[in-house]
Design brief:
Elements lengths: L1 H21 L5 H7 L3 H6 L26 E5 L15 H13 L10 H13 L10 H10 L5 E6 L2 H15 L3 E5 L4 E11 L9 E8 L18 E3 L1 H4 L19 E6 L4
């Protein structure tokens, strides 16, 4: 029995050694390779890359197109009108009214008949070939001499262009325009106008009305028609019945035939 136990013990010892030889041994070094170290984790490259925000192209919106609006300019105030005291003194009365239109103090209106006669003599002295009267050149010269100038005489061949020229110049200077009426025989003052579009902003504005002062009011002319009331707003068609092309035979000048304006010039 002892011999059998001894053999059995020996066999068990051999079997245990065989089992131990077949079991793999995992060391510390091998285990370390199975878990990432802190250093390895810190230095690992990122798996996602930052994407720059997409730049949306921008375009400038077109500027809105300006649309001409109704526009008006009127220099007239109550008391500016002066009648001509004789049938010859229309130029002198127009000079007095021009002064009143630009004098905002209202303290020195020119209305005196004696002064009107003196202004007519001054205008006549500066006029030539005018049938012993005062012509537009004398009119412009006196306006300049008495401190309302400079003024000059221009002839515009086209009626619409003449109205635009007068309105544009009034806007630029703030002074009235002289209108040579009745084919060179009479003088009116343009004291204001209405238009579609401000002449200072729209080169192609249209004049829809003209404000006038006729020193012959209330008499008028049997040939040319009645005198409008002071500060009347005439349509271009109404004005055209009396504001016509100057007749060259009336008085000679180097100006071509056209619609004559006694026009304010920009002051230097």
């Amino acid at each position: 029995m002892i011999g059998a136990r001894t053999r059995l013990l020996a066999w068990l010892i051999v079997l245990a050694g065989f089992i131990a030889g077949c079991t793999p041994t995992v060391g510390l070094d091998a285990a370390a390779t199975e878990q990432p170290t802190a250093a390895a984790t810190a230095t690992a490259p990122a798996t996602e890359t930052a994407v720059a925000p997409q730049q949306i192209p921008t375009t400038d919106a077109p500027a809105p197109v300006a649309v001409p609006q109704p526009f008006a300019l009127n220099l007239y105030q109550e008391g500016d009108f002066v009648p001509q005291y004789t049938f010859d003194w229309c130029v002198a009365a127009s000079i007095q009214m021009a002064h009143n239109l630009v004098d905002d103090t209202r303290g020195g209106s020119w209305t005196d008949a004696g002064q009107q006669g003196e202004l007519w003599e001054m205008a006549r002295a500066h006029s030539s070939n005018s049938f012993n009267g005062a012509n537009p050149f004398g009119w412009a010269q006196v306006l300049t001499e008495v401190g309302m100038g400079p003024y000059s005489v221009v002839s515009v061949p086209d009626y619409g262009d003449a109205l635009q020229t007068a309105a544009r110049t009034m806007t630029e200077t703030g002074r009235p325009v002289g209108l040579v009426m009745w084919s060179g025989r009479h003088a009116w003052v343009m004291s204001g106008f209405e238009s579609v579009g401000d002449p200072a902003q729209f080169p192609e504005f249209s004049v829809t009305g003209v404000r006038v002062l006729d020193p012959l009011y209330p008499y008028g002319s049997g040939q040319w028609g009645p005198s409008p009331e002071p500060n009347s707003l005439l349509t271009p068609e109404q004005l055209a019945t009396q504001f016509v092309v100057r007749e060259p035979r009336r008085w000679s000048s180097e100006l071509p035939a056209g619609y004559l304006l006694v026009l304010p010039q920009a002051q230097g």
